[in-house]
Fold this sequence. Notes:
- The protein is α/β, with parallel strands linked by helices.
- It is built from five helices and eight strands.
Amino acid sequence: MGITDPPAHRLDAAQTRRLVGSLCLRPGERVLHLGPRGTAAARLASYLVGPTGQVLDADAGPAATGRLPFPDDAFDAVLASQAADGNVPTTVLAELGRVTRPTGRVAFALVPPAGDGPERVAALVERSGLRGTSVRLDPGTDPDAPPACLVTAFPPRPPGTGWSRPARLLPRPAGRDPTAAPGWGAP
C-alpha cells in the first residue's frame, strides 16, 4: 500500500496547513508533492517556495512498488498530502527519504489502526530509517474522520558526514502568512 493509495481520508484545511507548515518551506526550494495534482497542500507549498522554487506533483504509486523515478537527494522537501492508513510498509517511507537531500525534510500523515497511537507511528517511521521524527496526533475538524498522525522527519545522513544529531528546522521568515495564500480561508 502506498502513502496516498488509497487514502484513509483527506486532511481538512487546518491539518493541511499544519502539515505543510511543518516543512518550514523557504523561497527557492524544490518540493516533491505526492498526491492528487493541484491540491490545497500543493498550492500552499508553491506559494511558500515562491517563483524561484518548484513544486513537482507526482503519483506515489511507484514508491509502493519499488522506486520513485527521481535521483537520490533530488528535493529539499517531500510532502504526501493525503492520510494513508498506518500499515504503510517501511520501504515506502524509506523511499521518501532517498529522494530528499540530507538537509531536507519529509512530511506526511498516517491514520493509526484503532487502538494504536502516535507511538506506533513513530516506531514505524524510525524503522524506515528516517530520523528526528516528530509525530503529532491531530483530530482535525471533521468529527466523522479518524484522527491523523502528522509526521515530520529527516532523511538518513550518509555515513561519514560527521553529523551526530538531527538538523534543526529554521523558522519561517517573518511576515509570511501561508493562510493569506489564494484559496485559503480564515483558520
